[in-house]
Amino acid sequence: xxxxxxxxxxxxxxxxxxxxxxxxxxxxxxxxxxxxxxxxxxxxxxxxxxxxxxxxxxxxxxxxxxxxxxxxxxxxxxxxxxxxxxxxxxxxxxxxxxxxxxxxxxxxxxxxxxxxxxxxxxxxxxxxxxxxxxxxxxxxxxxxxxxxxxxxxxxxxxxxxxxxxxxxxxxxxxxxxxxxxxxxxxxxxxxxxxxxxxxxxxxxxxxxxxxxxxxxxxxxxxxxxxxxxxxxxxxxxxxxxxxxxxxxxxxxxxxxxxxxxxxxxxxxxxxxxxxxxxxxxxxxxxxxxxxxxxxxxxxxxxxxxxxxxxxxxxxxxxxxxxxxxxxxxxxxxxxxxxxxxxxxx
Length: 345
Fold this sequence. Notes:
12 helices; single chain; alpha+beta; five-stranded mixed beta sheet
């Protein structure tokens, strides 16, 4: 996808640099500037090129979609101010026998140059904004297609792996009836495992779930892992949610939690796993810390697929509204994810 986007950007940039700008310069009013002031011509043309590439770098369509009106106003004021300052460039005076004609013709010429500069600036900005909007639309379409493709693959994998849900849950209920009274842990494990499966089946077709449902799912998963482990692995959970009805994508934290237990738990040595989830005023902070029980090189080679899929999913669901960092230091692996759940900020 990045290669395709790069090629598309290159086509737009080459058209602007090699076709549009030369036409504006040699067929427009700018072709007369060189005879008046070569330095002004170079500055003006360079400024127009800079406006185009700066506009692309600023991603103005994203600011518009995020309703970041203050930033937009600041950018517009900066552009207007710089263009106005360029119109004040001291050009050489025209020479006429009558002084008043010299002053009049010089003012008239400077006014025409200022108008032509504003005209070229408007054309360049119009093209730059059009390209930026096309790129943003194209980028979102590609991201959406990737997300749909990943979702279709996940659904297909689930379909291939799944047994008939009614048969599966009826069988689990039968097994549960067999273990009733034999062990509290066995009963609890069956209940939690059944809830995990039901959640996975129910949310397979859902794009969003409440954070309360997702938290229950995580708690069930963590409790099942605790049953498997012994006192050597210390698991600490810190959940603080200000609004449990907040909508998030389902099972977005599962890969990180799975990896924390997969690579950070042991039944023979002391280790610690921390799982933290805080949601406050539309800002989500998720964090895991775990001691690295397995060898560091093995840890790095075993993880990339799941983490890579998570990165791709987050990039599609929260473009420009999330940060994720993974670090390994002092025998501890740390995941820190921040998501701005408010799309308008």
